[in-house]
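Handoff note, outgoing to incoming analyst
You'll be picking up this chain. Sequence as last confirmed:
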Amino acid sequence: AVRRLAELYGPDAVVDAPLQRVRFDLGSIDRDTRSLRLQSSAEMNEAVCLADAIYYEARSESRSGQVAVAQVIQNRVASKHFPDTICDVVYQGSERRTGCQFSFTCDGSMDRPLNVESWDESMDVARFVLTQTPRSLGGRSTHYHTTAVNPVWSATLEQTRQVGSHIFYRFPWRERPAATASLRAAPPS
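Most recent structure output, in case you need it:
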């Protein structure tokens, strides 16, 4: 199934048969398993949030640039310093006019009509990133900006690389997974 998804959604996929893609996406649904439908709905919501970020932040980039932006979001989800879901990461701070993590969530960009072709491409990249383990393009990056700006925060982070017109950064310390707690008894006195 993973290989099939890569053929349908991979960055080099050629979409000659959209019906073939739809049949694969729909598959068979066990009508007695409500949790599977809810899980699919939640996964689709996460894919849409990721596609939003790809569309508004990197639609003019190559597929590699779009995947790198998506990987930053995934790195944030995996980090203890950010929210635990894609949608929460993408829309963090969007209720404020300033302080949003991704500018498109609070600058009015989402009020403009979508370019359907670019949106479909963004959704394809989101599905690919969520179903595959693509080559890491941004390292452990948790931040990025375009070459057109020079944000103050970039001086406090370690630059990892540049992909297209985006420069990627990570925290200067190496993030480690949370250790399991251990209870040790005090030595006898």
